[in-house]
Design a protein that fits this description.
This protein has 126 residues and is mostly beta strands. 0% of the residues lie in helices and 41% in strands. It has no helices and eight strands. The N and C termini lie far apart (72 Å). 25% of the residues are buried.
């Protein structure tokens, strides 16, 4: 066995835990507008559409890891709307295959809440 008298090697830096994604803000997807706000220990989701699809959805959401989950219990037992980070914006979807049409329930004329939403800049005209 060989012993070294030189300086001790420095352990590699420990990986920094990445900050959890910030969801708060206003996002758009076509004519849909999604507002996400902190409320108590959770979040509040509000999606509205003044366009031909005329969608409307408002509900509390809980954070689970890197996702926000809102129950669709009033519509279908066990159904959940999921919001997750997607690049610069967020994606709204239903992760359960059986519930892939659940987000259309809140709209008219074949529209749906699901999609990729981009952030609205503070200087944009609404």
């Amino acid at each position: 066995m060989v012993a070294s008298c030189g300086p001790a090697s420095t352990p590699p830096p420990s990986p920094q835990a990445s900050a959890p994604p910030a969801f708060e803000g206003r996002y758009t997807h076509g004519s849909l507008q999604l507002d996400i706000a902190r409320r108590g220990d959770g979040y509040w989701l509000d999606i509205e559409d003044g366009g031909p699809g005329a969608c409307a959805f408002s509900a509390p959401a809980l954070r689970l890891d890197d996702r926000l989950l809102a129950s669709l219990q009033d519509w279908k037992s066990g159904a959940v709307l999921t919001v997750r980070q997607a690049g610069n914006g967020v994606e709204v979807l239903s992760e359960q295959e059986d519930d892939r049409f659940s987000l259309a329930y809140f709209c008219r004329d074949g529209a749906t809440l699901s999609g990729s939403y981009r952030p609205v800049s503070d200087t944009a005209t609404l």
